[in-house]
Structures are given as C-alpha cells and as structure tokens.
Amino acid sequence: MRLKSVGKCVRRMGFCVLGAVVGLLPGFSAAAAPAEETVRFIGRFFKQADGVYRFNWSASTILAGFEGTGIAVTLRLISGTVDYFNLRIDGGEAQELKITADTERYVLAEGLEDGVHSVSLEKRSEGSETTVEFAGFDYGSGRPAAAPPAKKLRFEFVGDSITAGFGNLGTEPGYRIEEQDAGLTYGAMTAQAFDAEYTIIAASGTGLYQNLGGNTYPNMPANYYDRTLLGLSIDAQDAANAWDFSRAVPDVMVINLGTNDGASNVKTENYSSAYHAFLDEVRTRYPDTFLVCALGPMVLKLQPAVEQVVQQRQQDGDERIVSCIFRFDEQDGMWGAGGHPTVKGHRQMADELIALLKETVFAASSPGQPEEESSSEPAAAPTGSADADADGKTGWIAALAAAGAAVLGAAGWLTGRQICRRRRST
C-alpha cells in the first residue's frame, strides 16, 4: 500500500516529484550507502566512519545517476528542525524539497520512463542554520548509474549573508529559512552563466577582520574558511574537520567581505592588513586562480580600502586579481528581508560580475564561456527608505535582522549607477 505523501507533488514531464513520506513506497527498500563512483559531491562534505556524509555550507550539492523509474533518498537533520533543497531530475526545473527533523526518507521521483536518469540536490540554507547527513539513495527496482560528469570550470564564492542569499526570497524584516535560496544568489547565477560548478562558503554576520557587532572572533578567514563543516573546531575538538584545499581548486574565486566590518566601524588599517594576510593565504592554496575582491551592495564604507588592497597586489606583480564594487542603479524591488538583496538584486549583481569576467579572465574564447547573458528578471519586491551619509549620497540603513545567535545581517544601500569595476595599477 502506498503511504501518504506529506510533501508536495509537482508533475513535470509525466512524472511525479514527491516530498517527505512516512515510510517506504512500493519497490523501495532501505537506502544503500553512497558509492562515490555513482554519487558526486560539489562543495564540502565530511565522510564519517560509517560512510555517511555530513554537510552544511550553502549550495552543497549531491548528484547521482540512476537507471529505473524512481529514486528515494535518506537525509537526516542533525541540527535545525527544517531545511530546503533545490531538487532537479534530469537537469530540469528546480523543485522545492522540504526536509524535517522527524522524517528521514524522501521519495524524489517516481513514474519516470524506464531508463537512465540523473538527480541533484542543492542545499538552500546556510551552515549556521542546519547540518544534514546524506545516508544514500534508494533506487527501488532500478540500479545506480554513473553520476553526471564534472563541468570544466569551477567557481568559489566566499562572503557573508549577501553571498549566502540571506532573505533573497523575502520582503519583511527578520530571517526565515524558507526565504533563503543559495541557488538564486549572484554567485550561482554567475557560475551558471559560464556553465561552471560553484561552491559558497558564507556565513551571516561574519567579517574579514571584524564581525557585525564588533567582535573579531570568529571571523571568516581565521575561523571558518578552512573548515569542512561550519560550526566545528579544526583544533582539539575535531582536527579531521580541516578542509583539504587541493580537492577542489577553483578557476575563479570571488571574495565579498567587508559589509559587516564596515557596519561595525572597523579601523581601515586593521581591515586592510587582514585582507592582505587572507590573500597571501589564498595564493598559497590557489596560485593560478583568478581572484575578484568584491564589496557591496549594502555597506560600501570600505570601498577605497578594497580597491587599494587590489591595486597594491597588482603593483606587486599579481596579474590575476581585480576589484568589483556592486551598487544598485534603482531601489525598487532590490531589497528583501533585513535589507538584503532580493533575487532581482542578485540578478543585477550577477550581470555586472559576468561582464567583468568576460572582460578579464574569459576575454578570449574558452570552454564554458557563455555566448550571451541571461536577461530574466524575477518579480520586484518592496523596498525601505534610506538615510543620507556625509557625502550626500544615500547611505546604509541599520535594518538589523536576527534569527538565532549566528544569523545576523546589516542592511543598507547607496544610490547611483551600479558598477562592478576593476582597478589596474598605474
């Protein structure tokens, strides 16, 4: 007997994508431990002794191939009570998969045409909200097949709540996990334009040197960036949590850190010194990666510092680094929950970043380079008001959103033409 689905059934191309189920559907049995030749991971996954994988960073993605008519998965929430994934079958349109702490088994699709298919699951929320275990797929009467091959290009995005997609689906103050979608951020959109895989290492409230609120510990470069899982120590508590950077060297790395430093009135010299130290560390791990030092679009107080850091690196001989400053040329529909960019805002940021990369690292024809940029625009969302800063421009607003101890964001904006610009040494 088929057990009742407690999720949402969305019909696409003649099959049914399901949500959570209370037990097993006909033809499905206990999930098999993931085999790495048939399951591929994008992002940082911690493999435990029992073969189960634990993960929590935004946009962590599981891909698999299978032969048959349906597929189920075992996902366990280790922290948090609910989470959301972008589910795609055969590379199709993303569907929302909601998982809960009281359910482990989820039927992802059934009633497919018998044959070879693919499935992908992308985590939408950030690591401070949930940690998830992946215990394997259940192929029912079918069997595993080769996972989709890796793409030729890989991008990495490092940042704070903006990069993590805080509130990009919302319009009201505060944080709600269902209003965050890493797959609809400027990072995801930029990578998709170049047919690249992407990872997002981002945490709300964190700074490059000084976090929102003024504390300097923990911050992104010193305490988060080198972790496989956000929230575990890489020292005495769990040395195995240190990330092996040789496993996934990106072609392009975008760093967008400084919003929370600026909102907390960091001393410019401390920020600049920390930025140089972080870039030194990055270059030891990624000597050939093209680096983009970005800022915005919320608090742009540290724009001169970012540009000066990049100019100094260029003058010192690094020819594969540029700066990128995001500003919005309009306010309507650009700001979401807690004053963070909406999907429309992220789309505009992505378009500027795409143009910059086409000018620089992808100026010559190369694999994965897009022929044209996307022009799609999501529906607009309402905006708030803004205050004037000392320069007479529209300044940032302290629209502080909090949801739990670790999820905070500073909000604000500047008017004027949005520009993602690169600085070359003179």
What is the rounded distance between the termini? 73 Å
How much is the radius of gyration in Å?
21 Å
Shape summary: globular
- The average pLDDT is 82
Uncertain parts: 1-26, 365-419, 421-426
Largest sheet: 6 strands, antiparallel
Order of helical and strand elements: EEEEEEEEEEEEEEHHEHEHHEHEHEE
- Beta-strand content: 15-25%
The total strand number stands at 20
- By DSSP (H or I, 4+ residues per run), the number of helices equals 7
List the main descriptive attributes of the protein structure presented here.
six-stranded antiparallel sheet; alpha+beta; 25% strand; 426 residues; five-stranded antiparallel sheet; 7 helices; disordered C terminus; 20 strands; disordered N terminus
Characterize the structure shown.
With 426 residues, this protein is α+β, with helices and mostly antiparallel strands. Helix content is 16%, strand content 25%. It has 7 helices and 20 strands. It has helices at residues 161-164, 186-193, 220-224, 259-263, 268-285, 303-315, 343-359; strands spanning 10-12, 15-17, 39-42, 46-47, 53-55, 61-68, 71-79, 82-89, 95-100, 105-109, 115-123, 131-138, 143-145, 153-159, 196-202, 252-256, 290-295, 321-325, 401-402, 408-409. Strands 3, 6, 8, 9, 11 and 13 form a 6-stranded antiparallel beta sheet that branches. A 5-stranded antiparallel beta sheet has the order 4-5-12-7-10, with no helix packed on it. Strands 15-14-16-17-18 form a 5-stranded parallel beta sheet, sandwiched between helices. Strand 1 (10-12) and strand 2 (15-17) form a beta hairpin. Helix 5 (268-285) packs across helix 6. Mean pLDDT is 82; it is low at 1-26, 365-419 and 421-426.
